[in-house]
Amino acid sequence: MNKVRIGIICPSEIAFRRFMPAVQLCDDVEYVGVASADQREWFGENIEGDMAVIEQEHQKAMKFQETYGGEVFNSYKELLYSDKIDAVYLPLPPALHFKWAQKAIQQGKHIFLEKPSTTSYDDSLRIIKLAKKSNVAVHENYMFTFHEQISTIKSLIKSGDLGDVRLYRIAFGFPKRANNDFRYNKALGGGALLDCGGYTLKLAYELLGETAHICCSQLNYLETNEVDMYGSATMVNDDGLVAQLAFGMDNSYKCELEIWGSKGTLFTSRIMTAPAGFVPTAQIKRATEAYEIELPVDDTFKKSIEYFVRCVKDADTRLNSYSKILKQAELVEQMKGESHGRD
User: Fold this and answer.
1) What DSSP character marks residue 96?
2) Longest alpha-carbon distance in the chain
3) What is the pLDDT of residue 185?
4) Angle, helices 315-338/198-208, rounded to nearest 10 degrees
């Protein structure tokens, strides 16, 4: 295989605003087109739904074509059955990931999934088992993990400049979104844990390593919403190193990492959301000094797509991706199990 030919299921905002600019920078990827749902795919068996919604989605797909070229497929099925497509980008709401990833794999398509992979460990495991059997790649797009600032921070920790790490604190949350946002819809896989909470779990695992696990957690609800709106957790590894996590929707914005060491502290505020071209910084405090350092500029979406291409082309990378997906799904399940929030 030379270039990986990729199509998009659903003309979503993140696909238009983030994925497409990044994919155009990737030499090993060819964008083929985007699919909007037909009436049955959108409404299910209740095909008497508002056709204006279908037309709006089609118009969004036409905007992709006007801006980026490519084809417009008139249904998800049409894209999945196309022999012009090797791989599919799935930026659907989380509760729809399992259904359409399964259908895509059954057609031999590699899958680039927006996070979370699915809404449960069991569904993620089923996807991975099917992918292994079909010899296709699956990659979950926690793109921030590819940012060079994380490697730089890990190197700083290893250097001993902060001394021995005593504690990590990680926080991610954002203000209220539109009322019709899928994050507030339980049936679509909404909730703070599956959205911003997943970021904090992923970063904590990056820092604590393979033995990281949840030892206590809390999910909190509001009377006005059917999904968990904010939460917190403590993670620990076999060496006893701890990460304290906090996350939430309808919160003031935070995207922070604090490292408390025996000799100093490090604090940075765009650890999970730094866009392409942004120069992140970190504040370092020691006993007699305080200073700021610049962290590397990076393009995480591009690097995430490049990793996906490696998954497609290299069996070992593919197996590594499977493992990462299942570990993340396991941590989410641990979070649910440890929480004393409302069922």
Assistant:
1) G
2) 70
3) 95
4) 120
